[in-house]
Amino acid sequence: MSEFDRIAVLEAILQERELQDAIWGNQKDYSNTWWHVLASEKNGQVAKEIYEQTNKQLFRKLIELCAIYFTWAEMIAKKSDGEIE
């Protein structure tokens, strides 16, 4: 991957999204509190990788975190029945 390859990063996020779906299934009934706790935990893992200066693992944790936020936003949109633009 080149130094700045937006498409490759987006593809990695979407692949992680698919993996999370395969592992966790339908997540539409989780509360915003649950999503916040999950994202906060993953933020802690990102912080650990920053501290340990492991860029490969940092990239992986950031992709996982992005996929969590992506899923959370999807679930909010689904619950809103198209009211979000």
On the 0 to 100 scale, the average pLDDT is 90
Q: How many angstroms does the end-to-end distance come to? A: 32 Å
C-alpha Rg, in Å? 14 Å
Share of helix among residues?
over 70%
Total strands: the figure is: 0
Largest sheet: none
**Structural class assignment:** mainly alpha
- Give the overall silhouette: globular
Explain how this protein is built.
With 85 residues, the protein is an all-alpha fold. It has three helices and no strands. Helix 1 packs across helix 3 and helix 2 packs antiparallel against helix 3 (55-79). It starts with 5 loop residues before the first helix and ends in a 6-residue tail after the last helix. The mean pLDDT is 90.
Short description:
By secondary structure, this protein is mainly α. Helix content is 76%, strand content 0%.
Helix/strand layout:
Layout: H1 6-24, H2 32-52, H3 55-79
Helix pairs in contact: 1-3, 2-3
Question: What are the key terms here?
Answer:
0% strand, globular, 85 residues, mainly alpha, 3 helices, single chain
